[in-house]
């Protein structure tokens, strides 16, 4: 049991660290491509400066993401050898394709960083587009592998072994589209509001700074647009969960009883011993409608499943509430920004609104961390849903505290380096 807890803690820490840099690697190239595109259109040198500054930030995050991603690849074999032996032949393809996308991203990032005044301007902009596509595809391929763990397909089981393997079918499992869509939109949403929040902070001190005004406008547009798209992907995910992982949906909503016209809960404290949820605000029949487009549809409750097959309900429920809460705040910020821009025919830089956007700076990444907690903890006790338990997949190697401490020190060191480098990039225009 100690080995299992240590392995899960190490993997959780590594994923929590890596997902931040992976998300930035997916979304940051969009900002630099937009900035360069506006420079090509308007010849405004401020946009060129923005594109160069954001490209350097992208390079920093790409380098750190590459290191943390390499650590994760080692940890999969080190901590979960039984899982890798079973799943490797099935989900090896998306990992291989992720490597290809990673190399494409790296090659074109090099061209983008060092190609200024060396390649034609349109070619240089297209190199940025390829960095964007490479980062997106890299994330999508990894997410399809994780999606397979939630809805495993593409093989049959004979004598306890996976046979008749179809890697394409495994990669295109029922969860792939919804998870990849949700994660990709989340990355653009988080990065958009993080960048907008940083520049909103500086605009409060210097409202006429042209660099921060243009940066704020681009980032807020990206964050605002994707904040409106994310509920759509969330709805798709909820319907997928209702069909393929009803116990995870029940844990997210702390739904104990199987019932028709199940309510949507806001807040609440799940009591796993008494099997009730206290103090929640309930919206009648809303969960049934969101999951099935039917106000009277049946939602399976946690009591339908043996206690040993239920995830930790409190963790999943609280994480889901945090994710949704952060998302709602960013949706409000995006809608308000659009309304203020329309009403005043210009950039929404009223001090109270800039303060609000500044508060939103970390919310996207908090939502991503909470969302991955829902995805991973909500699948427990299974590492491969309904096929292999997490306890059966862990390494028998003792003394896992040693690599845990070693990797923790590495992550702290990388975090310090990133903070120092980003401060130099951001405060140069303070």
Describe the structure.
The strands form 5 sheets. A two-stranded antiparallel ribbon has the order 1-2. The chain is mostly helical and 430 residues long. It is built from 14 helices and 10 strands. 72% of the residues lie in helices and 6% in strands. The model has no long low-confidence stretch (mean pLDDT 90).
Key attributes of the depicted protein:
single chain, 430 residues, mainly alpha, two-stranded antiparallel ribbon, two-stranded antiparallel sheet, 72% helix
Mean pLDDT: 90
Shape: globular
| Main β-sheet description | 2 strands, antiparallel
Classify the beta-strand content into a percent band: 5-15%
Low-confidence stretches: none
Percentage of residues assigned to helices: over 70%
How do the helices and strands follow one another from N- to C-terminus?
Answer: HHHHEEHHHHEEEEEHEHHHEEHH
State the helix count.
14
| Strand arrangement in the largest pleated sheet | 1-2
Count the E strands. 10
SSE blueprint:
Blueprint lengths: L1 H41 L2 H35 L1 H34 L6 H30 L5 E3 L2 E3 L3 H5 L4 H30 L4 H35 L1 H8 L5 E2 L3 E3 L2 E3 L4 E3 L2 E3 L2 H7 L5 E2 L13 H32 L6 H9 L3 H15 L4 E3 L3 E2 H4 L7 H26 L4
Antiparallel strand pairs: 1-2, 3-8, 4-7, 5-6, 9-10
Structure at a glance:
This protein has 430 residues and is mostly helical. It has helices at residues 2-42, 45-79, 81-114, 121-150, 167-171, 176-205, 210-244, 246-253, 286-292, 313-344, 351-359, 363-377, 390-393, 401-426, and strands spanning 156-158, 161-163, 259-260, 264-266, 269-271, 276-278, 281-283, 298-299, 382-384, 388-389.
């Amino acid at each position: 049991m100690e080995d299992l807890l240590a392995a899960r803690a190490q993997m959780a820490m590594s994923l929590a660290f890596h997902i931040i840099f992976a998300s930035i690697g997916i979304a940051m190239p969009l900002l630099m491509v937009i900035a360069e595109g506006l420079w090509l259109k308007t010849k405004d040198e401020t946009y060129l400066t923005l594109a160069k500054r954001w490209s350097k930030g992208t390079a920093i995050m790409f380098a750190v993401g590459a290191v943390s991603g390499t650590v994760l690849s080692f940890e999969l074999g080190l901590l979960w050898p039984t899982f890798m032996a079973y799943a490797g032949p099935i989900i090896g393809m998306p990992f291989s394709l992720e490597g290809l996308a990673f190399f494409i991203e790296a090659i074109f990032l090099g061209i983008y960083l060092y190609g200024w005044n060396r390649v034609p301007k349109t070619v240089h902009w297209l190199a940025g587009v390829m960095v964007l596509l490479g980062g997106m595809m890299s994330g999508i391929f990894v997410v399809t592998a994780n999606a397979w763990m939630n809805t495993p397909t593409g093989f049959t089981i004979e004598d306890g072994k996976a046979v008749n393997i179809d890697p394409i079918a495994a990669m295109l499992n029922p969860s792939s589209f919804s998870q990849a869509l949700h994660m990709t939109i989340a990355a653009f949403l988080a990065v958009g509001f993080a960048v907008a929040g940083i520049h909103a902070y500086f605009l409060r001190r210097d409202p006429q700074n042209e660099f921060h005004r243009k940066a704020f406008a681009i980032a807020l547009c990206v964050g605002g647009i994707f904040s409106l798209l994310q509920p759509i992907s969330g709805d798709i995910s909820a319907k997928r969960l209702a069909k393929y992982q009803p116990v995870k949906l029940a844990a997210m909503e702390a739904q104990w009883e199987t019932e028709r016209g199940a309510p949507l809960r806001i807040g609440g404290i799940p009591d796993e011993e008494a099997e009730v949820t206290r103090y929640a605000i309930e919206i009648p029949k809303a969960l049934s409608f969101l999951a099935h487009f039917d106000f009277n549809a049946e939602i399976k409750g946690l009591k339908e499943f043996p206690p040993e097959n239920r995830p930790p309900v409190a963790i999943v429920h609280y994480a889901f509430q945090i994710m949704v809460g952060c998302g709602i705040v960013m949706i409000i910020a995006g809608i308000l920004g659009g309304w203020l821009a329309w009403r005043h025919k210009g950039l929404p830089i009223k001090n109270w609104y800039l303060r609000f956007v500044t508060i939103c700076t970390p919310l996207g990444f908090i939502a991503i961390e909470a969302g991955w907690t829902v995805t991973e903890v909500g699948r427990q006790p299974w590492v491969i849903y309904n096929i292999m338990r997490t306890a059966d997949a862990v390494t028998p190697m003792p003394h896992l505290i040693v690599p845990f401490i070693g990797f923790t020190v590495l992550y702290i060191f990388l975090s310090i380096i990133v903070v120092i480098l980003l401060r130099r990039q951001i405060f140069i225009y303070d």
